[in-house]
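Shipment paperwork, digital attachment
Item: protein structure file
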Amino acid sequence: MLRKVLIANRGEIAVRIIRACAEMGIRSVAIYSEADRFALHVKKADESYCIGSEPMAGYLNIYGLVDLAAASGCDAIHPGYGFLSENANFARACKERSIIFIGPDSDVIQRMGDKTEARQAMIAAGIPVTPGSEGNLDSVDQALSVAEKIGYPIMLKATSGGGGRGIRRCDTPDELRRNYQRVISEATKAFGSADVFLEKCIINPLHIEVQVLGDHHGNIIHLYERDCSVQRRNQKLIEIAPSPQIDEAQRQYLGGLAVLAAKAVGYTNAGTVEFLLDYTGRFYFMEMNTRVQVEHTITETITGVDIVEEQIRVAAGLPLRFKQEEISRRGYAIQFRINAEDPQNNFLPSFGRISRYYAPGGPGVRTDTAIYTGYDIPPFYDSMLAKVIVSAITWEDVIKRGERALRDMGLFGIKTTIPYYLEILRHPDFRAACFNTGFVEQYPELINYSNKPRPEVLASVIAAVMAAHTGL
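Attachment content:
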């Protein structure tokens, strides 16, 4: 087993990994920029080191991080998600210094990070993919030719893209012409690559992803699926496990496809195979994420498998502790990404000091976060503050628990997405498990929540008045 792990990340995922290391008897090493000097992950780790005054540069310094891991006596580096987590050069640099990279092999990261190469690998394995260009596009004329063959609308995508960036929908040839150079520019700035390709746009599909685990002994299993259809501009907001919108036959088929995809590329460690489900019931491979996902929490909740611990064990060369037939699931889990954003102001980021913070609790409630009362949210990073995860046996009960937990949560001093999520939970389509990737755009009125009466708020006011009167 590993003795010491450097966590090449920040925020809630760094805290999550630190906790896993503590349970496994592994010392944890945190890194931080000056902007993160008072961050919770710095306080919780066994050791911590400043990586510079620039907010981002240190977290992206491949050789600086590897040198720090070696100098501090670490066996391994856990990249978390974001930053360098899907950077093949980072994994390669770790190997060169005999530092274990807690993730898949660098060649697999590179292959699956290249969207056109990933498509070709899936086609060779017999996994359905959306119609599109055979490889990267050479010119806008080629893009127009391919789009004419497969039909509009199409999605123009950065080959090295991810996280909803470097992607544009085009409904007409004129839109394709206008967006072609824009996507190239976005791709070059965000990913350092100008390569783009296109696919047929599946209109308002379900976004269903499958968690897989693979070890170095040839074992690959899946941990069922997650429904990530509630999203805004390709950014996930609410995730659910398992999906309440597919049946058992589809579930087994999808799990089998995900394992087949992982085997086709010799995958090890934790990964996610993402699919789109169209209105006809057909699944299409979208991409594979070669890291732990933000929403891994809900899979852990319904299966009881600690995914981060399994990541560490696999990286240490140990076999998976579970066979496929030993994986079962129980009930439903929902994760809410609590973002420091103002939904009523076009989701404008809301940074500043958290004047008060109270975490939700009670049965079936988990909160993953790195915030605390008095914490100043730096404006340099992702706006996600916390993840609230609720679980219950039935779909109806998990929705009720979600409402209760979000109302329980007290987060003051900034704007958050909590009121917006409460509106979504109250919507009849969501309660009936009838939603897709177009849900947020389909119901823009849900953002107009400030003038609506709130029974729970009225009840709390009445209770406070009664308490004051009793005290008199």
